[in-house]
Design brief:
Number of helices: 2
Shape: rod-shaped
Number of domains: 1
Radius of gyration: 18 Å
Length: about 70
């Protein structure tokens, strides 16, 4: 399963890279980390379910999804 929300297309991002110490002295860089969206199982109106991000779940966008048959 993809690590992105199928409703709003929220996906992964790469964050980090430098600490405050690096900016001060150009020493000891930190690595980059990948952050993933918070995907949760949500019920759909037809009785099935899919993984969507918690922002869409909180708004209730899973209740308005038209399921292709």
């Amino acid at each position: 399963m993809a690590k992105s929300c199928p409703i709003c297309a929220k996906g992964t991002i790469v964050s980090g890279g430098y600490s405050n110490r690096v900016r001060a002295t150009k020493f000891n860089p930190t690595g980059k980390n990948r952050k993933y969206p918070n995907l949760q199982w949500a019920p759909l109106p037809d009785g099935s379910r899919m993984k969507i991000c918690t922002k869409c779940l909180k708004i209730g966008k899973n209740l308005k999804v038209k399921v292709a048959k």
